[in-house]
């Protein structure tokens, strides 16, 4: 990790403006630095407005967002897996690199099998992670495993990195009796306190201000941990994203906002999502240290997350990371993405700029991986996934009475009444309900 | 809210009487120390077994509860718009000085952020006491309340919960609050499994119920009738005490009609009971529901089985108001001697100059008793 990167994150304003290349140089932009405007303030004639710290100017000029190039995309290796700047190579331990690679490919294998199982009607829904495996493993590997994760839904790799087992993934997707969520949520809504991964919900961006609250809690607890909050570029348009950025900055919370900018929110391309410089461009306006990274370069993602973690834990200030990537798969199993984008476009990313193949090329060059290992791991990972898959499918669903528990910490009288009513009804009409697929309910006591 | 400070001024002065006369008379659960004589609510004279008392209005009782909550639980924090300097209704006065800036602090002006932030605090094990400046402005936080806070425990299979969250917010008519400083949104929240919704009628209940909400293991919405902040004064027990959630209070026992209300409306109904007795020779049983969700069905059922008649009154609009839920509870069919009456706000936005005609005042309620 080079000092220069840390420096850039530490000094967001300077970093942003020093990266700007003024396209249309107007005379008011007399110099590029921390001050964009020519100043007409004299020492005894300064603006005193409480709302900003700035100088007077006698030139009428709007700041135009198209005056400068976007925030650059930080990368460590090129598409062929060559390190571009030796000093940026994190020089990760060999075993760690292999682990990163294996988890990325294992996630990919699990995705393929669960996607197919949905197509066959064996699970009701699925969302793949194709093309974004690098953002998951690169960031997760740079965190402390006890840092709290708030996700959106396309971050299964983070959970996999932390040791959430294939069985557990499958149990959730099959809503069986071993699902930690008791079969209540749709597939891919994972969560695990043991792995410090807050349960996913479908509502977009709601996790963002929540993550800030948790980070505030950590700050008061002085536990040396931070919170990371993942979200897509589409979710960043929600009001909750605005709330989160602003609260995190004003309340000095140790949080890393990690945006997966994969070009699409279902069918909506980014030019219909925003007109500014992506999501990272918003960070400085909120007072967030901000950086943009090549999300298909797992080493770059690792470096950036590592540096961000240092800032949030040591300085107690929030950081925004925007990882540029591409959603190779359909949005979900309920979506056919060929209806709004070309097959060629998808093929380009799958074949020419994929996080898994880029890391594989890098590792081959380092003699950490070869075709034999590749084949052996492919077979092995597929076997593991199939084994968990078969196991999860055989398990029964949770007892139907679990539909009433955990609404409150205790069963309230009115819920007890409704549970009794359900049991009474179902026992009377057992033929009409799929009871054989479910674990047995505790018997209903007629006189209470 | 842009007008909050002006509004605070109006509340203060409005209640001094030059702006408008109040539509109710506050009946305390205790007599004031100076009066020294008992009244008919003396069975709610709770102080005698709760030790020393102090004269407090409702906002002071809230401050007192918050102070005790912060003292007894080092993790507890209070936050919202303008709470640092004491709040626009003075409910958090002195708390920042006493407990520190990291425990009592302002947030940016953003209700969805406040609720989301509070959920996150609670998820990480902190006791979170959020303030929404007016219940009228809670709706930007509706998604966080209904889709998130209420469902956190259920959807995670009890892996995670935000039970440590309490949202306090001023509610109800205030004489001149018009559309956005008068609303009573409790019925919106009564339709959300997973939260508790609580409204006190006076300072003692405010303290006891608020402390229960803060310590309850479920997310709670605590609605504070803002017209009572200054006008409601009682001798409030000084010590730490709690009132059970989900439990209604029978304030007056009677034989002919059951009356159910909550918040300020309890005091309106108190007068109606008196009027009914004096003018119609009707004996009314008055119930303060206290908790809207989960509500104390059994107490209401028992009362209606005895009286055979039910009148429900609330400030919120009639259609789908919480009165409808109570009225629809069908356990008393064989005991009812008359159709259930509901007296409520009309199905309009809450108006400014027409407020005296809008609210379910004692004359409208008395008319309903006659029916």
TrEMBL record, chain A:
Reactions mediated catalytically: N(6)-[(R)-lipoyl]-L-lysyl-[protein] + 3-methyl-2-oxobutanoate + H(+) = N(6)-[(R)-S(8)-2-methylpropanoyldihydrolipoyl]-L-lysyl-[protein] + CO2
Q: Which GO terms describe its molecular function?
A: branched-chain 2-oxo acid dehydrogenase activity; metal ion binding
Give the UniProt record's GO annotations in the biological process aspect: branched-chain amino acid catabolic process
Q: Which residues form the Dehydrogenase E1 component domain?
A: 102-401
The keyword Mitochondrion belongs to this UniProt entry's keyword annotation: yes
Its cofactor is: thiamine diphosphate
Where's it mainly located?
Answer: mitochondrion
What InterPro entries does its record include? Answer: Alpha-ketoacid_DH_E1_comp (IPR050771), DH_E1 (IPR001017), THDP-binding (IPR029061)
Source species, domain of life: Eukaryota
Q: Where in the cell is it found?
A: Mitochondrion matrix
EC number(s) on file: 1.2.4.4
What GO cellular-component annotations does this UniProt entry give? mitochondrial matrix
Record family assignment:
Belongs to the BCKDHA family.
The protein's name in its UniProt record:
2-oxoisovalerate dehydrogenase subunit alpha
Q: Which organism encodes this protein?
A: Strigamia maritima
TrEMBL record, chain B:
Q: Where are the transmembrane segments?
A: none
Tell me the ranges covered by the Transketolase-like pyrimidine-binding domain, including all copies.
56-231
- Please name the GO terms of the biological process aspect recorded for this protein, alphabetically: branched-chain amino acid catabolic process; response to nutrient
Q: Name its co-factor(s).
A: thiamine diphosphate
Gene Ontology molecular function: branched-chain 2-oxo acid dehydrogenase activity
The cellular component terms of Gene Ontology attached to this UniProt record, alphabetical and capped at eight, are: mitochondrial matrix
Matches recorded under InterPro entries: THDP-binding, Transketo_C/PFOR_II, Transketolase-like_Pyr-bd, Transketolase_C
Q: Where in the cell is it found?
A: Mitochondrion matrix
Q: What is this protein called?
A: 2-oxoisovalerate dehydrogenase subunit beta, mitochondrial
Q: Which organism is it from?
A: Strigamia maritima
